[in-house]
Write a structure and sequence with these properties.
By secondary structure, the chain is of the alpha/beta class. 55% of the residues lie in helices and 8% in strands.
Length: 328
């Protein structure tokens, strides 16, 4: 009986170790294509010797701004589901290796100003180090705010939050159940082949720009159309301010340029939501008068979108010309 129990324990430990190794090194087999896009940006930061101006934000900028059209020596470092937290760490990491930066373009979707639940990508894709995670957790504690923008119910609630993010940072397998389930359903090799389409060379040849879905509900309603108000997350606000301060310290000119909504979403915006958004942007404008602000909500026709959120090639060309006009 003892030998049987020991064998079971040995098998369990072996399985856990093998699973941990696979989860850490084999993300290309089970994460979606966002992972390769993130990794290409981090690889560029770590290996490139070019001193380029950068575009920072979420996928609406990553898809919508073509550096080859904008000019001014820009590289697109915007990432899928990027939050002000990830943008701050990307800029901080970039400035450690690239000193002569003159300009950055910044934008974050209305959704991530309120909801930071996409933040886990920061450590899933190895952007953050342990000290940065600790900094984030300390800020969350001091501001008493979780990723959804709500207060912690109790000290125990915070420590649950604390433990969950440490487990995520160390790639504890329970955090990946959904991705692994999808991989098993679709097949490991199918996921791998799909992810390889978003390789570093392809993204780098586009100076960091990438496309997502094509003709997938371009007239659908995006998150802002379903909201009655906008309440910026305190942690988001903290890191967005920190990003502006970091740029100022390094004498970098900042352009905050809003990416268009599709017409379907724009036409359904609640007046209270618009009022809250404008009020928040106004508070930032007053605080950072040296930032070049093009933050007003606006829209493009639905046929400029590949889905309800992201521009298609037609929309990206149009928006990039708009950005070029601002920069130049």
């Amino acid at each position: 009986m003892k030998k049987f129990i020991l064998k079971i324990l040995l098998l369990s430990v072996s399985f856990t170790v093998l699973m941990a190794v696979f989860l850490y090194f084999g993300k290309i087999f089970y994460f979606n294509s966002d992972y390769l896009i993130w990794k290409s940006k981090i690889q560029y930061i770590n290996t490139s010797k070019e001193n380029k101006n950068v575009i920072i934000g979420d996928s609406r900028l990553g898809v919508g701004v073509l550096p080859k059209i904008v000019g001014n020596n820009f590289y697109n470092l915007a990432v899928p589901a990027g939050t002000p937290i990830s943008s701050y760490f990307i800029l901080e990491k970039y400035l450690k290796k690239h000193k002569n930066i003159d300009e950055i373009i910044v934008f974050h979707s209305e959704e991530v100003l309120q909801n930071n639940e996409y933040f886990t990508r920061d450590y899933e894709c190895s952007l953050m180090n342990f000290n940065q995670l600790s900094d984030f957790l300390q800020v969350s504690k001091e501001l008493n705010t979780n990723l959804s923008g709500n207060k912690f119910d109790s000290e125990l609630d915070y420590y649950k939050f604390f433990i969950e993010h440490h487990l995520g940072y160390f790639h504890f397998f329970m955090n990946y159940r959904a991705s692994l389930k999808q991989t098993i359903k679709n097949g490991i090799l199918k996921r791998y082949r799909k992810n390889k389409k978003y390789n570093f060379e392809t993204i780098h040849s586009n100076l960091g720009q990438f496309y997502l879905k094509k003709n997938h509900s371009p007239s659908g309603l995006y998150w802002p159309a379903k909201q009655n108000f906008l309440k910026p997350n305190k942690v988001t606000d903290y890191y967005l301010n920190k990003l502006f301060v970091l740029a100022q310290k390094n004498n970098i000119k900042v352009y905050y340029i809003h990416s268009p909504l599709n017409q379907a979403t724009f036409s359904k915006l609640n007046p209270n939501f618009v009022k809250d958004y404008n009020s928040y942007m106004q508070s930032l404008k007053e605080k950072y008068p040296n930032v070049i602000w093009y933050a007003d909500l606006f829209s493009y026709p639905n046929d400029c979108f590949g889905d309800k959120i992201h521009l298609n090639k037609k929309g990206a060309l149009k928006f990039s010309q708009y950005v070029k006009g601002i920069i130049n």
